[in-house]
Structure formats: structure tokens, C-alpha cells
Amino acid sequence: MELVRRNSKLVHLSRKWHDLQERITSSPHRSPQADSDTSPPRSRRFLTAEDTVEIVHAYEAGQSTQCIGSRYGISKTRVATILREQGVPLRRQGLTDEQVSEAAQLYEAGKSLATLGAHFGVSHATIANVLKKRGTRMRPRPGWSDSSGS
Asked: What is the pLDDT of residues 57-103, one digit of tens each?
């Protein structure tokens, strides 16, 4: 048996496994979260009843779900869920016709999609979609050829 073991191509794995087991058993015990300084995931952040009331008031005062979510460290989807749970009807999503016209003017004046998205409280992709639907010619993205920009 010893002869087989010495000549086996897998004996090195057996030694590594044994060494690993020894290191594990001789290492000091620590709790799984002992070295973690990270905050909880955004979706797990605890909101108080007071926070919920403030979220509802802010939304009813005209703030966007994106803006409210940023303030509380939660996603806009979670804000919308909280509002629905509180019986608050959600406003029409997207931009008004006036906002689309303003966005088109600002875009044609050289503003970026990201800047416009931040200005109107929507994503850059939303801005791009409404401008394309309006017939606005999109600029090529930096570093892209002209043919891939639209």
C-alpha cells in the first residue's frame, strides 16, 4: 500500500488537503461579521414609520422617487413600493411635453444626456429615448464612430 501511495500522482493533493485541515484547525476562531465595516445592502436599510411618512409627504410635494431614494439610501423602486403600500397613487413616469422640448433644446446646445437626466430627475437612457422619439439627432458617444452613435 505504501508503494502505491508513494508512486501515486495524487499523493500531492492528499498532502495539500492534510496541510489545509491543520491550518484550519489551528487558526483562531472569529465571528463571520467581525471584520466587516460595510453598511447593510441598500435594500435592507431599515426605515422607521416617521421615514415612511416623510417619504409620502416628499412625494406628494412633488419630489421624484429618485430624489427621495437618494436621500434615504434606497432605490427608487423601493420608494415606489412604499408609496403603493401607503395607498399613494404614483404620478405618470417620464417627462412632460414641455420637459421634452426643454431637454431637446439643452441637448442641441451641447448638454450631455447624463446632465439632462440629473436635471430632470430621470436616467440618461430616458432622456435619450424621449429625444429619439422626438426625432432629435443623437450625437456620437465619445470614443465611438459616427455609425454606432444612433
From this structure: 999 998 888 889 989 989 888 999 999 999 999 886 678 889 999 99
Q: What is the 3-state secondary structure (H, E, C) of 99-143?
A: HHHHHHHHHHCCCCHHHHHHHHCCCHHHHHHHHHHHCCCCCCCCC
Q: Which CA distances in Å does 5 have to 11, 19, 20?
A: 6, 17, 19
pTM: 0.42
Per the structure block, which three cell numbers stand in for 98?
414641455
Q: Are 93 and 99 in contact (CB under 8 A)?
A: no
Chain centre distance of CA 60: 25
C-alpha dihedral, 7 to 12 to 18 to 21, nearest 10°: -160
